[in-house]
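Local shape tokens:
==================
===
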Amino acid sequence: WMNMFQKLVEFKKQHKNTIVPRKYDEDPKLGYWVCTQREVYRKDKLLPNRYTLLKSIGFEWDGSKVKNQQLWMGMFQKLVEYKEQHKNTMVPSCYDENPKLGRWVTSQRRIYKKDELDLNRVDLLNSIGF
């Protein structure tokens, strides 16, 4: 258990969060282990010392946030691909090739301007010249 916990600590150092996808290509065992910890916690069977360790690193207990993060990252990747093709991130709100991407970018700009976007997401968007 401690070996996997250490891997999670390293993941957090690198990604600034504990949201490991269930199917994490770089370390599939870590993704499965993290999901298992959430499940054990929901069933109220997580040992107190393990709960304390996970809590100490800001473990994300809510799996729905994980799904949200995966969806967001998927759209971000589509934006990166758009930028590679068009040399900018100015996706039209009514983008015929991918209407969902157009709506997503419009939404991200609105949230960004309101200063309500998660800082990690702001950093990612800024890294591609959003």
The chain has a mean pLDDT of 94. The chain has two domains: 2-61, 64-127. The chain has six helices and no strands. Helices lie at 2-15, 28-42, 48-56, 63-86, 99-113, 119-127.
